[in-house]
Amino acid sequence: MTKNIAIFASGSGSNAENIIRYFAGSKVLNFPVILSNKPDAFIHERAKTLNIPSLTFSKQDFESGEKILEVLETYQIDAIVLAGFLLKVPAIILKSYPGKIINIHPALLPRHGGKGMYGERVHKAVKEQGDTESGITIHYVNENYDEGNVIFQAVCPVLPTDTCEDIAAKVHALEYEHFPRVIEQIWG
Questions:
Q1: What is the Cα–Cα distance from 41 to 12, expressed in whole angstroms?
Q2: Residue pair 103/85 in contact by the 8 Å Cβ criterion
Q3: Could you say which of 105, 112, 123, 178 is catalytic?
Q4: Nearest-angstrom CA–CA distance, 20 and 130
Q5: Do residues 35 and 44 lie in contact, with contact meaning Cβ atoms separated by under 8 Å?
Q6: Cβ partners under 8 Å of residue 44, min gap 6
Q7: What is the DSSP string of 1-12?
Q8: CA-CA distance, 23 to 30, in Å (whole number)?
Q9: pLDDT tens-digit readout, 3-55
Q10: Is residue 172 annotated as part of the catalytic site, yes or no?
Q11: First vs last C-alpha separation in the chain
Q12: Cβ–Cβ under 8 Å, residues 6 and 36
């Protein structure tokens, strides 16, 4: 039986595209819609290229949750993947999808997580604090930023000579390699 998974993204959507391409032709996992809180996010351009509908919603609609749940019901969504999505998921959506929402974070949680810790901010914190390793954390989403149960972590070294951009490149490589596989292990 096919499972329909929605992707929520706020930015460029490179992880979303990687996931969708990984599962192209899958008879088990389907990604019928992408939702974003930013109308100018590059994820919408990627969605056009991938022939997947992408919808933008307001912060108010997301916080109330009702319109989002209607969209998810329309597309018969079974689970949600957050791929570079920056808003905290409201209780109404968490209750409708218990244990069915996962996120990827560009650091080894619990380090460098929480509100405001995303993208370059995370890599800068890793560099400034002299961490010797970084990586990714894939976790279930709960009512707090980056505090849900960890599903998977992958580590990369951080050298003293690494720039924030170097760290980001290493982390992105881990994201692209592991995120689709973890999704497949959970719901495939």
A1: 6
A2: yes
A3: 105
A4: 35
A5: no
A6: 34, 36, 54, 56
A7: --EEEEEE-SS-
A8: 7
A9: 999 999 999 999 999 999 999 999 999 999 999 999 999 999 999 999 999 99
A10: no
A11: 10
A12: no
Structure-token match 């999505």, residue found: 85
**Closest to 135 in 3D by CA, of 165, 109, 116, 164:** 109
Which distant-in-sequence residues (6+ apart) come within 8 Å of 10 by Cβ? Answer: 36, 37, 38, 41, 43, 84, 85, 86, 87
Residue position matching structure tokens 């949750």 = 65
Number of helical (H) and strand (E) elements in the chain, helices listed first: 7, 7
Claim: this prediction has a pTM higher than 0.85: yes
Look at residues 84, 82, 81, 105 and name the one whose alpha carbon lies nearest to residue 188: 81
Q: Tell me the sheet residues that pair with 3.
A: 29
Q: At what angle do helices 43-50 and 14-22 cross, to 10 degrees?
A: 20
Q: What is the DSSP secondary-structure string of 36-101?
A: ES-TT-THHHHHHHHT--EEE--HHHHHH-HHHHHHHHHTT--EEEESS--SPPPHHHHHHSTT-E
158 is written with which tokens?
């951080």
What is the spatial distance between Cα 141 and Cα 88, in angstroms, rounded to a whole number? 9
138-175 residue pLDDT tens: 999 999 999 999 999 999 999 999 999 999 999 999 99
